[in-house]
Write a structure and sequence with these properties.
By secondary structure, the chain is mainly beta. It folds into 3 domains: 88 residues, Immunoglobulins (Immunoglobulin-like, Sandwich), CATH 2.60.40.10; 71 residues, Sandwich (Immunoglobulin-like); 301 residues, Pectate Lyase C-like. 9% of the residues lie in helices and 36% in strands. The protein has 4 helices and 38 strands. The strands form 7 sheets. A 10-stranded parallel beta sheet has the order 14-15-17-20-23-26-29-32-35-37, with helices on one face. Strands 18-21-24-27-30-33-36-38 form an 8-stranded parallel beta sheet, with no helix packed on it. A hairpin with a 2-residue loop joins strand 12 and strand 13. The longest helix has 26 residues. The N terminus is likely disordered. This is Fibronectin type-III domain-containing protein. Pfam families: DUF4957, DUF5123. InterPro entries: DUF4957, DUF5123, FN3_dom, FN3_sf, Ig-like_fold, Pectin_lyase_fold/virulence.
Length: 524
C-alpha cells in the first residue's frame, strides 16, 4: 500500500513540474519562442519612426548571441490582418536601422520575423504600426518662380499626378501630359502679396503640399531703380509709401536716412534682393505730430560695411508713440554696432525680425545687439531667423527706462524657431539682460551655440517660459547661479551643422530635425 502511495506521489510531482514548465514556456513565447533552440528568437524592441513624411525607419535589438541569417519584413496598408501584403523585404542585421519609402496618409501594419541559416524554424512575428504623413514630391518653391500674379511649381518628373489645387481662391489647375512629364506647371490668376497653399493631387490622394507668398503688385508703390537717387526718392515720398527696389547694387549711395514718416522699403523679387548700404533713424513726423510712424524693411540686403553705428536708431525724444519696426525676409550684415538701438525717451510698439539672416552685426565692443536703454519697447519678436556671430556683449538688453519703467508698462520678448550662433561669447554676455520693471519672455524651438553666455545675472529679469530648445556648447544657459534664469529643460545635442563657419547651419542631427529646433530654413 505504501509503495503504491509513493508511486502516486511521484506521478503527481512529475505532473506538477510539467505544468510549471509548460506555463513558463507559454508566458515567454512572445519573445523567447526559441527557448529550446528549435526556432529563431523573435526580434525585440521593434521601433518604427516616420522620417521625411513618408519614409519609415525600422530598428530592433539584435543580441550578440543571436545570429539569424536575415529578417523578413512585411507591410500591409490599412490592413491589421495582413490579408494583402503591400511590400516584403529581407533585411540583414548589419543593415539596421533600415529606411523604407511608403505612400502618404496611410496606416501601415508592419511585422518582422527572424529566419535561420541553421535549419531552425522561423521566429514568431513581431508586429508594430506606423502612420505616414502627407507625401511630398513637390520641390521647394524658388523665389525666382514667384511673381505677383503667378507662380511656377515643380515636382518629381513623370509622377502620377492629375491636378493642383490652390487656396485661397479655389483655383484648380488640371495637369497636362507635358506638365506631368516635365514636373512643372505655372499657376496664374493669383493676387499679389497673398499667402497661398498649393496641393498636388493624384485623383483624391495628396502627393505634395507647398506654401508660398506672391510678390508685390507694385500698384501705387514707388519703383526705385539702381540709377535713381535713393535719398531723394525717400525724402520726396509721402507718408505711407511703399518703395519697391528693382534688383541691383545701390551700395555706392550711403548715408543715414531719417525715417520720420511711415515707410516700407522692399525688394521687388525676394530671390534677387537689392543691395543697400544705409543707417536709419526713427523719429516723429514733424509735419504730422499725431502720426504713429512705422518702418519696414522687406526682402532687402542691407550692409553696414564701412559705416559707423547701428542699423536702426531711436536717438531723439519722441512725444508721440512710435509704431512697428519690421525686418522681414532680409539679409542684414556687417554693422559694427547695434541692430536696433533705443537711446532716447520714446515708446515703441514693437521690433520684429522674421525670416531673416542677420550676420556680423554688433561686432564692436561697448554695445549690445538689440539695445533699448532709455526707450521703452512693448514687444521684441525674433522668429524663424538666423543670428550668425551677432553681439560682442548682450544679445537683448531692455533697460529700466527713466520715466517709463514702473508705470504699468510691460516689455515682452519672444524668441521662436531661431538659430543663434555666437560660439565665442564670454561669460559676461547675457542673452536676456532685461531690467525693465515689468517683463515677460518666451524662448522656444531655438538652437543656441553661444559659448559662455548666460541668460541673465539680474534679479529684474523674469523667468522666461522655455520649451523645446537645444543649447550646444552653451553650458551657462543651464546653470542655476548668479541670478541666472536657466533653461534646465533644454537638450545639449550636437546639431552637426553642415558648415557653421561658412554660414550653412543645415542640421544633420536627426533628433533635432524631428523636433524642429532652430530656423526652419536649415531643417531639410
Amino acid at each position: 500500500m505504501m509503495k503504491t502511495l509513493d508511486i502516486f506521489k511521484g506521478l503527481i510531482t512529475v505532473l506538477l513540474f510539467s505544468i510549471a514548465v509548460s506555463s513558463c514556456e507559454s508566458y515567454n513565447e512572445a519573445l523567447l519562442d526559441g527557448i529550446e533552440n528549435t526556432r529563431e528568437f523573435s526580434p525585440i524592441g521593434l521601433t518604427a519612426k516616420i522620417r521625411n513624411s513618408t519614409t519609415v525607419e525600422l530598428n530592433w535589438t539584435v543580441k550578440a548571441e543571436e545570429n539569424p541569417d536575415h529578417y523578413v519584413v512585411e507591410f500591409s496598408a490599412d490592413d491589421p490582418e495582413f490579408k494583402t501584403i503591400y511590400k516584403t523585404m529581407n533585411v540583414a542585421a548589419s543593415q539596421l536601422p533600415v529606411q523604407v519609402a511608403l505612400e502618404g496618409e496611410t496606416v501601415y501594419y508592419i511585422r518582422v520575423k527572424a529566419v535561420s541559416g541553421k535549419g531552425l524554424e522561423d521566429s514568431k512575428w513581431y508586429v508594430t504600426t506606423a502612420t505616414t504623413l502627407t507625401e511630398q514630391i513637390f520641390f521647394p518653391v524658388q523665389d525666382a518662380d514667384i511673381e505677383a500674379t503667378q507662380v511656377t511649381l515643380r515636382w518629381t518628373p513623370n509622377s502620377a499626378v492629375t491636378q493642383i489645387s490652390v487656396q485661397p481662391g479655389n483655383i484648380t489647375h488640371t495637369i497636362t501630359a507635358a506638365e506631368k512629364t516635365a514636373g512643372v506647371a505655372t499657376i496664374t490668376g493669383l493676387t499679389g502679396e497673398t499667402a497661398y497653399t498649393a496641393t498636388l493631387l493624384n485623383g483624391t490622394k495628396k502627393r505634395g503640399v507647398v506654401t508660398f507668398t506672391t510678390g508685390i503688385d507694385i500698384g501705387t508703390g514707388i519703383l526705385v531703380k539702381p540709377e535713381d537717387d535713393v535719398l531723394q526718392k525717400i525724402a520726396s515720398a509721402p507718408s505711407g509709401s511703399v518703395l519697391v527696389f528693382m534688383p541691383g547694387d545701390y551700395t555706392a549711395q550711403t548715408g543715414t536716412i531719417a525715417v520720420n514718416k511711415t515707410l516700407t522699403l522692399r525688394g521687388l523679387r525676394p530671390g534677387d534682393k537689392p543691395k543697400l548700404k544705409f543707417n536709419f533713424t526713427l523719429a516723429n513726423n514733424p509735419n504730422n505730430t499725431s502720426e504713429v510712424v512705422n518702418f519696414s524693411l522687406v526682402d532687402i540686403d542691407l550692409s553696414g560695411a564701412g559705416t559707423t553705428g547701428g542699423a536702426i536708431t531711436i536717438g531723439t525724444a519722441a512725444t508721440t508713440n512710435l509704431g512697428d519696426v519690421l525686418i522681414s525676409g532680409c539679409n542684414v550684415h556687417d554693422f559694427p554696432s547695434q541692430l536696433m538701438y533705443g537711446n532716447a525717451s520714446a515708446k515703441l510698439k514693437s521690433f520684429t525680425v522674421d525670416n531673416s539672416i542677420i550676420k556680423n552685426v554688433n561686432t564692436a565692443s561697448g554695445a549690445d545687439f538689440i539695445d533699448f536703454r532709455t526707450t521703452y519697447v512693448a514687444s521684441v519678436s525674433l522668429t524663424k531667423s538666423t543670428f550668425d556671430n551677432c553681439s560682442s556683449r548682450d544679445f537683448i538688453r531692455l533697460d529700466a527706462a527713466t520715466g517709463l519703467t514702473g508705470t504699468g508698462l510691460t516689455s515682452n520678448v519672444l524668441i521662436d524657431a531661431c538659430t543663434i550662433y555666437a560660439p565665442t561669447l564670454p561669460a559676461t554676455s547675457r542673452i536676456l539682460y532685461v531690467r525693465f520693471n515689468a517683463n515677460a519672455s518666451i524662448v522656444r524651438n531655438t538652437l543656441f551655440t553661444v559659448g559662455s553666455a548666460s541668460y541673465t545675472n539680474n534679479t529684474a529679469t523674469a523667468a522666461p517660459t522655455f520649451s523645446n530648445n537645444n543649447n550646444f556648447n552653451s553650458p551657462n544657459l543651464q546653470v542655476a547661479a548668479s541670478n541666472n534664469r536657466s533653461d534646465t529643460s533644454a537638450t545639449v545635442l550636437d546639431p552637426q551643422f553642415t558648415s557653421a563657419t561658412t554660414g550653412d547651419f543645415t542640421l544633420k542631427n536627426q533628433t533635432l530635425i524631428d523636433r524642429k529646433v532652430g530656423d526652419p530654413r536649415w531643417i531639410k
